[in-house]
Every structure is written in structure tokens, then in C-alpha cells.
């Protein structure tokens, strides 16, 4: 039988093993809540410890997780086409684990300027104090090349980038990183492995906020770091252990439940988002729409080449003043005003100009930018809501 599609694999992976005596197994992996593990004898403990030290999967202490965690780690490897994954308590923690695993004092890190803004907080509050220097670049090979230093160690990027969904030429950037001996790390929250696979496109490490589409229900925070390079596993392993990243079994259980329906949720949100793009495109005040699946998005060709699908996140700029944009957002009924995305619900955010000032991709400098997460509501109702709010805000 040929390898089933990822959507099929996601329905079968991460199930509990059959009980040797009864031959039965629960379909849903139970949440194994425990802070520690007890052993029948010291010999069993020693065997487990040795296996763990040799890269095996024994459990000796709760912090590194039990079978529930192992099941989700398998899911992330499958999604990202990786060989090993590590769970962490948030998407931001996956970014810190990714970078701290490979950058040391005296190193230099290149970061795409459209990456999730809190990366800059990690830099300001932590990397600087460790003596790690960061340069933010327009995410092109030419700009990264110009910023390269003899001590550059890591290339970090996010594709599509935050807020403007800027598609990057990841295969070219990954090849550049390899040519210069850099460890390349991609934030793949947008694709969550299903719609986009940076490791397959040549990157070394993928970091994901499972808080978004993996969860799908806006009810927990989590992240994962995945690699397909065996030689990089020890560095991630040591850093994960030393910094004490740990995730609750209940949250892992929610993630396992969420991921089963991720394909249909992402597809439905993506179809809804395209219909919203069409509706917005008819408004004279909408200057530009940022959504890579939208044919007029400048990244559309890269999206067609490199992605398998899309999702519900989009932004649009308005050729009006900010006050009108504020009135519009306040008049919306079905879009909750709030951060985040990837859940069942629609959300809206008026993006502060300050959070875009460092994006080389942002050309509509003076215009308000609105980001929507288009959820799983009936799309006609969402469009009606957008239109009534726009009319009321005039
Ligand atoms: C692209 C991206 N990466 C990472 C994160 C961080 O995820 P978390 O909120 O789980 O820390 C977010 C959150 O919005 C995000 O949008």
C-alpha cells in the first residue's frame, strides 16, 4: 500500500498500545498525569536511564513526559517530516529553545524582519545579555548575505511572515544557510506542518506554536521544536533538559484531540478566508489584501510552489484614517477583538503601526492595517458582519 495522505495518518497516529493481556486499547490516548515514575527494581531504573542516554525513549521522570507526550511528539515528526520533536509550554518557548540550542555567547544570528515580533523581546532581554548579537534583515538571500559575519551561526525566519503573511523563498534561503554552515530555523506556525513543511524545503529546524491550529479550540498554549537532522538532536535535547521546559499531560491530550480535525478546520477556515478576501476586494477603501492564497498577493506564486493549502489568517490595509478603522472594529459583532488565531472563532486586530515599522515588506506606512482570523462560522454571516460594520463606521 502506498503511504497514506497526512490527513489519514493524523487519524491513526498516537494511539495507545494494545494491552498484552486483554488485547484491548483505548482509541483516545489517555492523559498520563504524573510528576515521576516508579520502577520495579534498580535494574529496571538503570536500564531505562541507559536507554535514555543513548537517545531512546524511556521515561525516568515526569518532566520529559510520558506516553501521552510521546504520542504527540510522533505527531509533530509526522507533520513536519522530522526525526525528533520536543514539546514546550508555548510557541514563544519553541522559539527560545530553537535559538538557544544553537547560539552561544559571541555568536551572531540573522533574523528575517517579518518574524513574530516577540523574537525581538527574546533578543533584547536575553540574547543581548548572553552576548549574542542579532541582525534583522529583509528576508532575501542578498540581504542575508550582506549581513553575514564570520561569527554568524543561525538563520532564523518565519514564512509566511507575521502580520503581512509575506511568503519567503525558503528553499533559496535554506540553501544559502547550508552553504555558509548556518543552522536554519523556521517558525512554521502558519503551516503547522500540514500546509507547509520548512524541513522538506531545506530548513534544519522547525518551531511551531501549537497554540494555534494544532489546538484549534483556543484552550491551551504549547509549542514544539522539530528537526530532521540527527546531528542536531543532542543540542536541542540538552537545552530542553537544562532549561526545564515541561508540558502538562492534559494539554498534550487536548493537542492530540485537536490535531485529528486540523485538516478540515484549516481547509474550512482557508475557504472562508478566500471568500472574505473576495468581499473585501470590492470595497474601494481596501488598499491591499495580504493572504498568500489570494491570487493578487505578491507571494501567491511562492505559495503555489511551496504550500499545500492555506488557513484563515489575512490582513488588509485601508486608505482611510485610523479613526474609521477603530470605529469599524468596534462595530463588529462576530469577530472578537483580540490577539491570536487558529481557533474555531473569528478574531480581529487593529495592528499598531509600531509593530510594522521594522517590516521591510510594509509599504502602506500611513494606512491602518487590520488582521482577521476567519474562523468556522458560516462565511456569509461573517461577510454580512464585516459589511454592516463598515457601513456603520462611515
Ligand atoms: C507566528 C507565531 N509564532 C509564535 C507565536 C507564539 O505562540 P504562543 O502564543 O503560544 O507563545 C505566535 C503567537 O501569536 C505566532 O503568531
What does this structure look like?
With 394 residues, this protein is of the alpha/beta class. Helix content is 37%, strand content 15%. The termini are far apart. The structure holds pyridoxal-5'-phosphate.
Short description:
The chain has 394 residues and is an alpha/beta fold. The chain has helices spanning 6-12, 42-53, 67-80, 91-102, 119-127, 141-147, 170-179, 233-242, 249-260, 262-281, 300-306, 322-331, 379-392; strands spanning 84-88, 108-112, 133-137, 152-158, 183-187, 205-209, 223-227, 286-290, 313-318, 336-337, 347-351, 369-373.
The overall pLDDT average reads 96
What is the count of DSSP helices, taking H or I runs of 4+ residues?
A: 13
Terminal CA distance: 59 Å
Strand content is 15-25%
Record the strand order, biggest sheet.
1-7-6-5-4-2-3
Shape label: globular
Tell me, what is the CATH class of the largest domain?
Answer: Alpha Beta
Here the CATH topology of the largest domain equals: Aspartate Aminotransferase, domain 2
Summary tags:
single chain; 394 residues; alpha/beta; Aspartate Aminotransferase, domain 2; Aspartate Aminotransferase, domain 1; 2 domains; 5-stranded mixed β-sheet; 13 helices; 12 strands; globular; binds pyridoxal-5'-phosphate
Describe the secondary structure blueprint for this structure.
Blueprint: H1 6-12, H2 42-53, H3 67-80, E1 84-88, H4 91-102, E2 108-112, H5 119-127, E3 133-137, H6 141-147, E4 152-158, H7 170-179, E5 183-187, E6 205-209, E7 223-227, H8 233-242, H9 249-260, H10 262-281, E8 286-290, H11 300-306, E9 313-318, H12 322-331, E10 336-337, E11 347-351, E12 369-373, H13 379-392
Parallel strand pairs: 2-3, 2-4, 4-5, 5-6, 10-11
Antiparallel strand pairs: 1-7, 6-7, 8-9, 9-12, 11-12
Helix pairs in contact: 3-9, 4-8, 12-13
This protein binds pyridoxal-5'-phosphate (PLP).
